[in-house]
Write a structure and sequence with these properties.
- With about 250 residues, the chain is α/β, with parallel strands linked by helices.
- Helices cover about 40% and strands about 15% of the residues.
- It has helices spanning about 15-30, 45-55, 80-85, 95-100, 105-115, 135-150, 180-195, 215-220, 235-245; strands spanning about 5-10, 35-40, 60-65, 90-95, 120-125, 160-165, 205-210, 225-230.
- It binds 2-phosphoglycolic acid.
- The site of 2-phosphoglycolic acid (PGA) has 13 residues, from strand 8.
Length: about 250
């Protein structure tokens, strides 16, 4: 099966000219791979034009965030209906940088359901901010999953993608160990099955935080994940090309 790779550009780059250049290199790199399905999450203001320029099949597009309402008085927000109109296939929900600026589990709950309602695949981002030896990260993750899946119809459970991102590792160069990710993947499936039933066994799980060209291979091989969410390396064209090549 193909590995899903999300390129989360966050609030980069600073001009559309650079965005186009980065997209050209990324496109070329992904075209020479066999086993990758790339999901590009550029800033919303660049998304439609990049989407419209792309004629291939290996790249699909994601919003980094969206509002759950279809429209209305929400200054600065983008709706999922607008995302669909721009032929967006995925939306990141509950990224830790959004949670840090106030997004709650209640918000992610509404957003996941709203995305599914318009046929956009939600990528629900979860993860603890700190890790101690007390195992508290499991209860944080469990609560984030419970909320995120609460309003999902049983038939849609397996359409939600879960991205586990240990927040303390984001932005660095060192991932969680693949063995710990494997343990977390088992826990995530179990938590969803407990909360929402057997369909939880079939969900796709991604790992994100400090994924680089050096650690990508081990994480895909031993981490029990279907894909990876890449932040800072995805806006560094040579490094991201090397990362895609390392997956093959
Ligand atoms: P990073 O970011 O790859 O720079 O650690 C991952 C993320 O925040 O999604």
């Amino acid at each position: 099966m193909k590995s899903l790779v999300v390129a989360n550009w966050k609030m980069n780059p600073s001009s559309f000219r650079e965005a186009k250049r980065l997209f050209e290199v990324t496109k070329k790199a992904v075209e020479s791979t066999q086993n990758i399905s790339l999901i590009l999450a550029p800033p919303a203001i660049f998304l439609r034009e990049l989407r419209d320029s792309y004629k291939g099949t290996k790249i699909s597009f994601a919003l980094q965030n969206a509002h759950w309402e279809a429209g209305g008085a929400h200054t600065g927000e983008v709706s999922l209906a607008q995302a669909r109109d721009a032929r967006v296939s995925y939306v990141l929900i509950g990224h830790s940088e959004r949670r840090a600026s106030g997004e709650s589990n209640g918000d992610t709950r509404r957003k996941v359901a709203a995305a599914l309602a318009v046929g956009i695949t939600p990528i629900l981002c979860i993860g603890e901010t700190k890790r101690t030896t007390s195992g508290q990260h499991f209860s944080v993750v469990k609560e984030q999953l419970r909320a995120g899946f609460a309003d999902v119809a049983p038939a849609h459970i397996s359409k939600v993608v879960v991205a586990y991102e240990p927040v303390w590792a984001i932005g660095g160069e060192q991932t969680l160990s693949p063995r710990d990710m494997h343990e977390m993947a088992i826990f995530i499936r179990k938590a969803i099955v407990e909360a929402r039933g057997e369909k939880g066994m079939n969900i796709k799980i991604m790992y994100g935080a400090a994924v680089t060209e050096s650690n990508v291979h081990a994480m895909l091989r031993d981490g029990d994940v279907d894909g990876l969410l890449v932040g800072h390396v995805s806006v560094d064209a040579p490094r991201f090309s090397a990362l895609l090549k390392a997956i093959g």
